[in-house]
Amino acid sequence: MYNAKAYSAANATSPLAQATIARRDPTETDVQIEILFCGICHSDVHQARNEWSGVMPTVYPCVPGHEIVGRVTKVGSAVKKFKQGDLAAVGCLVDSDRTCPECRAGLEQFCPNLILTYNFPDKHLGGVTYGGYSDSVVVDENFVLSVPSNLDLAGAAPLLCAGITTYSPMRHWGVTKGKKVGVVGLGGLGHMGVKFAHALGAYTVVFTTSPGKKDDALRLGGDEVVISKNADEMAKHAGSFDFILDAVAVEHDVNAYIQLLRRDGNLTMVGAPEKPLPVSVFGLIFARRSFSGSLIGSIAETQEMLDFCGQNNIISDVEVIPIQKVNEAYERVIKSDVKYRFSIDMASLKSE
After folding, report:
1. In angstroms, rounded to a whole number, what is the distance separating the alpha carbons of residues 274 and 168?
2. Overall number of domains in the chain
3. Looking at the domain assignment, is residue 305 inside a domain?
4. What's the mean pLDDT when you consider all of the chain?
5. 157 and 66, same structural domain?
6. Does one domain contain both 157 and 167?
7. pLDDT at position 274, please?
8. Using CA atoms, how far apart are residues 95 and 112, in angstroms rounded to an integer?
9. Could you tell me if 143 and 299 are in contact, meaning their C-beta atoms sit under 8 angstroms apart?
10. Is the pTM of this model over 0.70?
11. For a Cys-Cys bond, which of 81, 145, 154, 204 suits 343, CB 3.0-4.6 Å?
12. Cα distance between residue 145 and residue 147, in whole Å
């Protein structure tokens, strides 16, 4: 066991502050990583402030962060995929039971006994796992990913959550050249959805309530922008989409988008509104449309996504901040005041 520097929340109302945490010494199958950048996900804010207490109560102290990129500093004797000096990444998962039907199918993200990167039981040290707002982390090599060397690391960090969350449903529902794809909401998730849909060759339409986002939507790869409050613009696309990715995390009318799907079209939710969304069944059954959700992706699919990003030069649009500005960044995340993700330069932690 060794001590690592970190930023943690002591309780639901306290700001994040510098702390010292325990990390395990690498076992024979572990990879130790010096963390270079860690993205800020909106779920970090929810978790740090115990806003998911009914589903996933927070254990304090809480060290958030599941969009981790860094460099390997040490490997266990049985590690085969990594060596000292390699670029490496860790996303939302750091372990699973590896024996359940989901794990055997290569879908660890649905394992009933999965271990998330932070605030989940730590079988090695007791207590809970600690995330990437830290100078280092130790993870089993089966849950560590390789980062293409051509990617900017600050922009690559959010790929570990925002990237895989939007890439996975597009792959599952067969987004390819010739398909018509809609992306609802141009935020941290939505802007990655636009980049992926474009790179996969789809005709990409961005739906937004903000006319001021039109130029950015086109810059990111959108072929067309629809102001969703304009009924005439919406009506022009009725029954024409193969797939729609909905990245909006607040209450909104999903039925308006379901009506835009063609026969057998799918709308997948990756945004997670706090309250249930009313869905008109008639909008589904009359065209055999489907309405579904998606949760990150497997380790193999996350590696596929990173490789795809390397081949297509895709990273997240980020604002890089020092760790000392994390509390300010949390307030800006709540206000959607960032284009489009924050990435923490963890070198700033060394000055603490």
Report:
1. 22
2. 2
3. no
4. 96
5. yes
6. no
7. 80
8. 11
9. yes
10. yes
11. 154
12. 7
> 268 lies in a domain?
yes
**Residue 186, in any domain of the structure:** yes
Amino acid at 175: V
List all residues 6 or more positions away from 79 whose beta carbon is below 8 Å from its beta carbon: 28, 29, 30, 31, 141
The three-state secondary structure class of 169 is helix
**Residue in this structure with the two tokens 């993200």, named with its chain if needed:** 109
Whether residues 198 and 97 share a domain: the answer is no
Is 202:176 a contact under the CB 8 Å cutoff?
A: yes
In this structure, the answer to whether residues 110 and 201 fall within a common structural domain is: no
DSSP label of 150: T
To the nearest 5 percent, what fractions of the chain are helix, strand and coil?
Answer: 30, 30, 45
Q: What is the CATH number of the domain that holds 233?
A: 3.40.50.720
Radius of gyration, alpha carbons of the chain:
20
Mean pLDDT, residues 20-39 taken together: 97
The span from the CA of 228 to the CA of 93, in Å, is: 35
15 and 156 in a single domain? The answer is yes
Co-location of 57 and 191 in the same domain:
no
- Of 272, 320, 326, the closest CA to residue 69 belongs to 320
Once rounded to an integer, what is the mean pLDDT over residues 283-303? 97
Write the DSSP string, 315-338. ---EEEEEGGGHHHHHHHHHTT-S
Say which CATH number the domain at 135 has.
3.90.180.10
Residue 52 is assigned to a structural domain of this protein: yes
Check: CB of residue 158 under 8 Å from CB of residue 91: no
List Cβ neighbours of 184 (8 Å cut-off, separation of 6 or more).
190, 207, 228, 244, 245, 246, 247, 248, 257, 271
CA dist., res. 273 & res. 264, Å (int): 25
For 287, the domain range is: 162-293
Query: What distance in Å separates the CA atoms of residue 285 and residue 263, rounded to the nearest whole number?
Result: 10
Strand (E) or helix (H) holding 140: strand 136-140
241 shares a domain with 208:
yes
Q: Sort residue 245 into left (φ over 0), alpha (ψ -120 to 50) or beta.
A: beta
Same domain as 167, residue 151? no
